[in-house]
Amino acid sequence: MIRSLAILGTLSLLLLLSCKPTEEEPWHPTPYELPSPLFFPTHNNIPADNPMTVEGVALGEKLFHEENSCAMCHHKEYSFEGGPDATLEHLGTEHTMLPLINLVWNTTGLGWKGQVETLEDMVYAAYTDPLEINADTAEVAKRLRQSDIYPELFKKAFGTDEISFVLVEKAIAQYIRSLVFANSKFDRYLKGEEQLNQDELNGYLLFITEEGADCFHCHGGGTNALFTTNLLYNNGLDAASKGEFKAPTLRNITLTAPYMHDGRFSTLDEVIDFYSEGVQYSEQISPLMHHVMEGGVRLTIEEKAQLKAFLHTLTDTTPLTPNPQPHVVP
Ligand code: HEC
Ligand code: HEC
Q1: Which one of 4, 58, 93, 179 has the minimum C-beta count within 10 Å?
Q2: Residues of the chain with pLDDT under 70
Q3: Does a structural domain hold residue 317?
Q4: What is the pLDDT of residue 13?
Q5: pTM for this one?
């Protein structure tokens, strides 16, 4: 309630003078060219009724970063998660956060439980969830219609200044689809532009072999450079199972602590110790947790350091933006 009042307050600040009707001009948005990095999927989730445009992405970016909007929780510098303070206690949400990167290639459901089908639906869910933005969508659209800047931006993006919440969903979804991260040290290694050192290479070999650390079935690698399958598994965190959760991407994993759906681990060392010797058997455990009967993959101290060195090569804080972005943020 307090949050939604705050939103009304903020948006009403945007209400300056009433906007004058814009003259009819032809609508020619600029198609947004999605990059196709090496070993990324060819199939994406761009819906036929929401093609990406440079103007749509720019509008979505502005809406995303409004006060009391998505960026309250999803911070750019932490791979669009919340950073080290985003514990369950701080967030007040049911689960910890997920990074908003490379989601244009997620075709199997969003959220820890894969509970939301499309990015457009996720925008609606985040705005209306009492634990997230907790806003009235009709009111949001109304305030935007009354603002002195947004009608023109919607017109550029969608050819109309009749702002509805559906267009808010579309714009923010386009922005999230533009967040492509594929320029880590590991990507440059794949392209032959940079070498991995011996520890990083050994870590990669551990990652992609069953007799090694056995991570790749769920977290990709090899010809799956998303570093996730985006599917749900039970990875053996507890003997009393809480069911299956999405295997998050391991890209930018150095930036997204705390780890797991409940944030139980605060460092990668703790995560690696868990997979090495802390895996718990339950009836729901994924059959891909091949080493559960030994309590985990049993890595030596040296192997743990190598695996961690490899995970560090997956960090990249600069999204690929192939098109010049019109600078709409004043
Ligand atoms: C109060 C903090 C908070 C705010 C505000 C928030 N989110 Fe989130 N977001 C979360 C949490 C927590 C999750 C994980 C939710 C879950 O699945 O249980 C999440 C998950 C997501 C996911 C799923 C990612 C994936 O890999 O499946 C998307 C997409 C997303 N948010 C987009 C948005 C957008 C768009 C907005 C603004 C309209 C927004 N969020 C506002 C906390 C927040
Ligand atoms: C059977 C599939 C599976 C295998 C194999 C697996 N993981 Fe995971 N991983 C998951 C799932 C599912 C989660 C989320 C679990 C949860 O939060 O309940 C996860 C979470 C993680 C996280 C935390 C991600 C975050 O953003 O919170 C890291 C880091 C991680 N795994 C690394 C690894 C490494 C390294 C290996 C190999 C040693 C590995 N995983 C093997 C399925 C798997």
Answers
A1: 93
A2: 1-24, 321-330
A3: no
A4: 47
A5: 0.91
Q: From 329, 2, 5, select the one nearest 139 (Cα to Cα).
A: 5
Residue 71 sits at φ, ψ, to 5 deg, of -70, -10
Residue with tokens 């969003």: 110
Distance of CA 29 from the midpoint of ligand 2 (Å): 40
Ligand nearest to the CA of 234: 2
What's the token pair of residue 213?
């650390």
Q: Please name the residue whose Cα sits nearest to atom 43 of ligand 1.
A: 73
Helix (H, G, I), strand (E, B) or coil at 164: coil
For tokens 């804080």, name the residue.
317
**Structure confidence at residue 321 (pLDDT):** 67
Q: What span, in angstroms and rounded, lies between the C-alpha atoms of 21 and 37?
A: 43
Q: Where is the domain boundary, 109, 143, 177?
A: 177
Backbone Cα Rg of the chain: 21
Q: Residue 323 falls within a domain, yes or no?
A: no
Co-location of 172 and 23 in the same domain: yes
First to last CA, the chain: 30
Q: Which ligand is nearest to the CA of 304?
A: 2
| Residues with Cβ within 8 Å of residue 151, at least 6 apart in sequence | 19, 22, 144, 145, 161, 163
Q: Does the Cβ of 32 fall within 6 Å of ligand 2?
A: no
Q: Is 323 exposed, middle or buried (0-12, 13-18, 19+ CB in 10 A)?
A: middle
DSSP 192-247: TSSPPPHHHHHHHHHHT-TTTT--HHHH-BTTBTTS----EE---S-SS----EE-
Provide the domain count of the chain: 2
- pLDDT reported for residue 24: 66
**Are the CB atoms for 127 and 137 separated by under 8 Å?**
yes
Phi and psi at residue 221, in whole multiples of 5°?
A: 100, 175
- Residue 155 belongs to what domain range? 2-177
Q: What is the distance in A from the centroid of ligand 1 to the CA of 160?
A: 28
